[in-house]
Structure formats: C-alpha cells, structure tokens
Specification:
Helices cover 49% and strands 0% of the residues. With 162 residues, the chain is mostly helical. The protein has two domains: 74 residues, no CATH class; 51 residues.
Length: 162
C-alpha cells in the first residue's frame, strides 16, 4: 500500500481560448461590472492551464484564493462549473429559477397609486388595504393579490392614503 502526501491533484482543468482570455481580462478591468463578476473573471484567468505560471496562469486553488482573498471553495466551485459552460456564462450572475414573478409590475403599481389617490368608495372615509385589493381584482389588474403586497408597494411609493 502506497501513501501519498501533499496537495490533491486538479480534477477540473480550465483551458481558455485567446478570445475568452481577452474578454475575461477586459471584464476584470471593467468599471461597469460587479466585484463578484470581476473576481470570478480573475479566478478563471489565474486557473487557466493554457497559460504558464510565469505568465499569470496555471495556479492552484489555494494560491488563487490567497491572491484574490476569497474562499478556496469559491475557486473550486467556479473551476467545477467551467467545463459545463462557457467562461463568460460562468462569470455572469445566474437567473434565479424559483423566484416568484412580481404581482404588481410598473403598470399595476400605476393603477394602484391612481386608485389610492382617487376618492374612496361610497360609505367609506378612506381606502383600506382590503378595499384596494378588491378593486384591483375587480378592475382585472391582477387575478389575486395579498394585502401585504399592496401595503409594501404603497410604502415604497411616496404617496399618502389620507
């Protein structure tokens, strides 16, 4: 039985083409991208097996993590995802799959604010959240909506209900 010591070998190798490398270098120097995207681009550049160590590539996960001051797990996860996707897709933020769509978009919010600023229905001194909800459903702005959604929407606007 042989025992080996030392660092584990790389399982996921990153080999960037010249075009990918150029676009990642441009992205990492950009002022219009988030820090997370720029860090991911720098990770891929430092892990590139097609570039020698002296030219700034082919580093280990621990070396990259230490140089960029990020977690080694971040480097590993990015290295693991890269063979399945192209480098620019790995750097960009992924769309959340389970995120619920907004009940009130800009048009629905405009209807709500206009309704809130109008006169309350007969027999009522002011609009209540329940009345607003019922009227939005009645006007077919939304099929169903919670009173809490209406409250939060009105809170973020600078309107006053009375």
């Amino acid at each position: 039985m042989w025992l080996t010591c030392g660092m584990p070998t790389k399982v996921h190798h990153i080999r960037l083409s010249a075009d990918e490398r150029a676009s990642l270098e441009q992205l990492s120097a950009s002022n219009h991208k988030s820090e997370r995207e720029k860090t991911r681009a720098r990770i891929l550049l430092l892990c590139d097996s097609n570039t020698s160590y002296e030219q700034g590539g082919s580093r280990s996960d621990a070396q990259v993590a230490r140089q960029l001051r990020c977690s080694p797990n971040t480097v590993y996860q990015l290295r693991r995802r890269t063979p399945q996707q192209q480098a620019p897709a790995v750097v960009a933020r992924a769309v959340q799959k389970n995120r619920a769509t907004r009940k009130l978009d800009g048009n629905g919010e405009a209807h709500l604010v206009a309704l809130t600023c109008s006169a309350p229905p007969a027999g009522h001194a002011r609009w209540t959240l329940r009345l607003l909800r019922e009227r939005l459903i009645e006007m077919e702005v939304v099929e169903a909506i919670a009173q809490e959604t209406i409250r939060q929407t009105l809170k973020k606007t600078n309107s006053s209900r009375g």
